[in-house]
């Protein structure tokens, strides 16, 4: 298989030394944590495991004495996945030994395929590349005459009532906003105008297939929990904000008539203001729950910052431009929707895995955060219910993807012997729905972790 230069090996070794300061060091009981192999103390309650608490699955010490993996070591793993297709659909895989930089397995790795939501790791990169990770998005109310004007910078994770400083979604609350406004100006105002337009172009990318629009909300200046729901997304999130605020003002004895405007508004001093979680926290939540709305929104905010235009077309073009500038193979790389919510995107397994290896080896500290933001198998996000009763539980940190025709998994896995592997594995061109093939991908990961 392909070899890397000595520089690559030294760079990764240097990175591992830096990583050890903040990793969760418990897979081999180096330090206590959720991945420890020791039996729990009988009678003690299991610790609560809130989503988003895993910095990384990497152990503190990366073993340097392991024998190099060969393609023949992983061929049986691939054969099982390939056989599961029964010749009716395709599969591809690309695996890198993160310590040596060697490509230890590759099959159908260069074919651009539908990547589904694994596209979101590129959206995360562009967001953290363009925006200050510590910045917050402000929502303000101004008073002009007897009219209140709500102006939002794009906090789509507002809470319906009181804000919670411990949460990402709901850090800022609409109830707090209304109470601040009434405390400041009393019950005089009679109207509330919500200035709903934030981005250039339409609120939702028209290139996303109509039968997929249920899984994304319009991206405007404000929303509650990004319109997110298990049964589908709210298609009128800004109206929900207006209705919620109207209820709050009425309960405070200050009823207002709510209207909506696409026109910008520039106020002087706000009479109320609330702040979102940081861009870094929002990006992590986007990856953890695979939020299509947040992915498109962050990509558009990044495009506005880097190109001066935040239309859907500008957002996807900006993502492609920025990724094409990285020292990774991008042949056939084509992104229509930053969220991956389209059958039109095309990305090869090689591109995604090499992108992760680039982050591992050469990424800036904020770019490396992407490696740590993805869900952990059996514990968090979209992987909370996957690989739960297997050796792979707690050993895979990856972004999942699923559309009708394709299922994918890409990220980092740590083998039982302590070897970190960077991978992308997926099924493609599945004729009758790819959801069931996720089990085949999970079996691939279990076999990989056993190596």
From TrEMBL:
Keyword Signal: yes
Entry's Gene Ontology BP terms: peptidoglycan metabolic process; proteolysis
A UniProt-annotated Pfam family: Peptidase_S13
UniProt KW keywords: Carboxypeptidase, Hydrolase, Protease, Signal
InterPro entries: Beta-lactam/transpept-like, Peptidase_S13
A molecular-function term among this protein's GO annotations: serine-type carboxypeptidase activity
First and last residue of the signal peptide: 1-25
Family under the similarity heading: Belongs to the peptidase S13 family.
Domain of life: Bacteria
Name of this protein: D-Ala-D-Ala carboxypeptidase 3 (S13) family protein
Keyword Hydrolase among record annotations: yes
